[in-house]
Write a structure and sequence with these properties.
The complex is a heterotrimer of chains A (389), B (229) and C (384).
Chain A (H helix, E strand, L loop, with lengths): L2 H9 L3 H33 L5 E6 L7 E2 L2 H6 L4 E9 L2 E2 L9 E5 L4 H4 L3 E2 L2 H9 L3 E5 H6 L7 E6 L5 E12 L8 E5 H6 L9 E2 L1 E6 L5 H11 L7 E5 H9 L3 H32 L1 H10 L3 H42 L11 H28 L2 H6 L3
Helix pairs in contact in A: 1-12, 2-9, 2-10, 2-12, 2-13, 10-12, 10-13, 12-13
Chain B lengths: L8 E14 L2 E14 L3 E5 L6 H8 L7 E6 L2 E2 L5 H11 E4 L11 H6 L9 H14 L15 H13 L5 E5 L7 H17 L3 E5 L3 H5 L3 E6 L2 E2 L1
Chain C lengths: L3 H10 L1 H33 L6 E6 L10 E2 L2 H6 L10 E12 L6 E9 L3 H4 L4 E5 L8 E5 L14 E5 L2 E10 L8 E5 H7 L5 E2 L1 E5 L6 H10 L5 E5 H45 L1 H10 L3 H26 L7 E5 L6 E5 L4 H28 L9
Helix pairs in contact in C: 1-9, 2-7, 2-9, 2-10, 7-10, 9-10
Classes of the chains: A alpha+beta (389), B alpha/beta (229), C alpha+beta (384).
Amino acid sequence: MNLATYARRNLFRRRGRTILTIIAVTVAVLIFCAIRTFIVAWNAGADEAAADRIATRHKVSITMQLPRHYIDELREVPGIQAATWANWFGAKDPKERVPFFAGLAVDHNTWFDVQQDMKVSADVLAAWKQTPNGAILGDVLARALEVQVGSRLVITSDIYPGDWEFKVVGIYTPVRKTVDRNTLLFRWDYLNNDPRAVYSKEHLGWMVSRIAGSADSAALSRRIDAKFESRDDQTMTMSERAFALSFLGGFSAVLSAFQWVSLGILVIMTLILANTIAMSVRERTHEYGVLRAIGFPPGHIFGFIVGESLLVSLAGGLVGAVIVELLINHALGPFMQDNMAGVFQHFFTPGWVVAVAVGAAAVLGVVAGLIPAVLASRLKVTDALRRLD
Amino acid sequence: MSQGEPSASIVTLSGINKTFYRGKEPIHVLENLDLDVPGGSFEALMGPSGSGKSTLLNIIAGLDRPTSGTVRVAGEDLTKLSDGQLAKWRSQTIGFVFQSFNLIPVLTAAQNVELPLLLTSLSAADRKTHVETALRIVGLVDRMHHYPRQLSGGQEQRVAIARAIVNDPKIIVADEPTGDLDRKSADDVLTLMDRLNKELHKTIFMVTHDPSAAERASVQRKLDKGALQ
Amino acid sequence: MVPFQYNARSLFVRKVTTLATALGIALVVFVFAAALMLGEGVNRALKTAGRPDTVVILRKGSDAELTSAIANEYLGLFRGPAQVAQAGGVIGEIIVVVTAEHADGSGVSNVLVRGTPPGGLAFRPEIKITSGRAPRPGTNEVIVGTAISGRFKGLFPGQSIDLRRNRPLQVVGEFSADGSSYESEVWGDLDYVRNALGREAVVSSARVRLNTPSDFDAYRQLIEGDKRYSMKAMREPDFYEKQSQATGGFLKGLGLTVAILFSIAAMIGAAITMNGAVAHRTREIGTLRALGFSRASILTSFLIEAIVLAVIGGVVGSTLVLLLSLVSFPVMNFQTFSEIVIRFHATPAVFVKALVFSGVMGLIGGLVPAIRASRVSPVEAMRG
């Protein structure tokens, strides 16, 4: 046996209390990881946005459109390898099966050239060229709207009146886990030719360009905007990541509130740990006196107390890590990704979040034990022996 | 060392004063006390409660410091040692026996006895040997893997004594060792302590208010109102 | 019944433990109450603008003013029916979101700009100009809601922002609107705004003042049944109710979920504390039983102690959360895609709910320990 044995055995003195404390730490780790996973999932789209794509939109408002001929001028800018465009359709499911999905009218000739995160076969592209009202969907959306290749699909729009009928010509495959699987793409010329879209005729919503990976995207963006500076419709060009983030910008306050909240659960966990350790130390003050009398130096006593606190918090942290892994990454995550892709297409706890949680549990375990340990080791031996607790 | 022959002092206290404060009130527990304990002696200290017996014991054992005076125990001037040095000195020099046994409930008898050895650099195998020897001396080797709750009061105290001697200390300090025991167990414990004194030549300093326990010692002193008689 | 003094003193004697547990509960109550206050704030911001005698008309199929478009000529048709009040009547407004830079350089957000006709300010008696003056109709003058004034570059009295190249908006004043979401908007002249955007003949939405609220059903049938156009009509309060549902419900749901998860940890903490208390006071409990106190009275006594402990934390937490009323919180409104500024709003109901919540935590956390306490037999009083 050694000193570690003593520390370990002490944990089972009040088994109920130790178990409850471990459960508390486990719950805290679970909550912490869940909150951080939420934050990571929210930012996932933005974080993984391609480095080799930039987006150009109207400078004044995301809801204002640019003249169609801008795309020709954009393609002339040196450094632009390929450019495409899209219009926001405001798509809704008339049968309300899907609460929200993105509907885009895109240039069918160039979209998949630039948006290489989504892949379709050459056959699908050819079919799309032949079908004016052809639509390509993400697999999750297709399942939710109950359509396959060849089906007829009717949707409505927030912006344009009436029913819009499409023929599904293909399902795109996402290249990475974080790519959206909930988007509907149809031909821009189909929208442009429809009399209901008279207000946006010959206008595009925004343009996306592929640039060389090594290019200086900031300088290129500035050059593009300078080109359109003197026009009535000025542009704002930014990296695709910045573009995606500008949608999330309205929620930055909520997300930073969540960062604070995730710290809050760690504070509660530390309070519970400190409380448990303080109670244990108070009950064993006499025993620590005996050990000191026998000759154990105060440093050993300090070590016992901090060591016990660390063992409890580490145990809770590790149990929590295992549960997180099983619950989120093997049960909840896949469920959310398949069924709530519109909101969370990537709900997955990264390893570093779990590591931080377990590390925090360990560090806070030590912190929680510090004050009781310092007080216990400073107590005069004779006072400790006098306590009958 | 030959039996029974008085030898050099192992404990020398001179001019010991110990004052406690209750609020602003000073309480002089020990006043100008001198004490000489020869090595190999078995001493009993008696006195009414509140007389300062435990305080004196604590000073001899290096658990407490006098307000003034000198303390020489086993060749060391205790007043010159720091708290850390005192702890080390205690682990090597003193064996403690308490009234309420004070065994650690989550450790077996053997593990309790092993505790003081964890402060040394002995190997696990050596520690095992010492533990067995100590338990054999107190007659409880067959109970070495039992937990304190599985032992009777008398057996617990004997395990505590084994713990007190496992490090081969020079002095055994006992504070009311038979206070919580029945007559028979008390007798067994005192017989054991007698053997430790006569056969292993351990100096024993015992505080007690049990006259029959005091009779077993070779020297009996009385402490009253802070002064020795 | 065991006198409460016993519990009170016991709580007081173990100060550190009482404090640590109460603090943990205080934190949980803080989060809970904050979530409630946020929900109240959203409701307040998005609801108070609604009057039961006012109708909002949007293009059928649109859920928000932003995406709706109504041809100008239809406004006259909306004014026709008898239910429409002669004074006040009908106004048509254009809504657009504009990218604006944060004044502190922390990025950009969308701000809602509302182009309103000359009668637009008077249509809403709750609008008060709090600094500067009202804009002159037909000009590029605008006023800024108090919630966003100064938060964006150019949106402050005396400054200007560009609606479009060479089409600046001059800020001439600030307005308040009883805490509603209007306070997160910029209001200017209908014609100037829509001309600048090239949408001359269109409004986003129409608001109609009826003679009495009960006229609504008849009016709605007329409007929605008219074959000349496809519109939908809603009572203004219902319109705002729908707007706040998505955002408000989301925030409130999120906040409450977090608070309830936290409460699990806090209840475990309370259980640990009360368990420790019972273990520490076994001899006392045995004595009480030996003296004649029943099991039920011991159970109740410890349960009350747990609840009081939790409520102490609840009081601390709900007092601290009042400080949040000083904080305003920008949130993206899903429906309008623009930023609205929410104030945490404390009501007596929030306070009461928070205290009840803390009491429930104490009850649940303290139940098992209280049962254990009641099981202590009088024999324990004799144990040394």
